[in-house]
Amino acid sequence: MSSNGLITVASRFSARETMDRLIAAVTSAGLHVFARIDHAANAAQVGMELRPTELLIFGNPRGGTPLMQDRQTAGIDLPVKALVWEDEEGKVWLTYNEAAWLAARHQLGDRSKDAVEAIEKGLATLIRSIVESADTSQS
Q1: Is the peptide bond before 61 cis (omega within 30 degrees of 0)?
Q2: Quick one: which of 34, 66, 100, 113 is 20 to 30 A from 48 by CA?
Q3: DSSP label at 132?
Q4: Taking the CA of residue 109 as centre, how many other CA atoms within 13 Å lie in the half-sphere pointing to its CB?
């Protein structure tokens, strides 16, 4: 488990293409996209600059509800979120919350263990499938 709960993975695609690939993978996996938030576009609307930065909120009640049944405070971190962003050097990254960190944060019990493991495994598989890069780091 990373110290801050974030897993960051490099993408070989542009920020826009990475997000588009993520949405396609999420919907293909039968998950629901709740929102796509373009932080850079929102910044531009108020006359500020921000490198490409987009947040995707997605999930499935079958995965998240057991966590909230265990501890309703888990709802602050659900549905799942993934942030696609471009750094100062133009490299694109995808960052998401580690499920085990969320379990620790909300002190989830044994009854959430299977759901947490399924979310962690599912996210890792989903993310790997869209970035197609072996360059990963845990922040």
Answers
A1: no
A2: 34
A3: -
A4: 7
The 10 Å Cβ neighbour count of residue 57 is 15
Other C-beta atoms within 10 Å of 9: how many?
A: 22
Asked if 81 and 57 touch (Cβ cutoff 8 Å), the reply is yes
pLDDT of residue 44: 98
Q: Phi/psi zone of residue 90: left (φ > 0), alpha (ψ -120 to 50 degrees), beta?
A: left
Q: What is the pLDDT of residues 11-23, one digit of tens each?
A: 999 999 999 999 9
Give the global pTM.
0.90
**Domains defined along the chain, listed by start:** 6-134 (3.30.310.70)
Q: What is the pLDDT of residues 17-58, one digit of tens each?
A: 999 999 999 999 999 999 999 999 999 999 999 999 999 999
Pairing of strands 136-138, 6-11: antiparallel
Order of strands across the sheet with 136-138?
32-38, 53-59, 80-86, 92-97, 6-11, 136-138
3 — phi, psi (to 5°)? -70, -30
User: What confidence score (pLDDT) does residue 3 get?
Assistant: 75
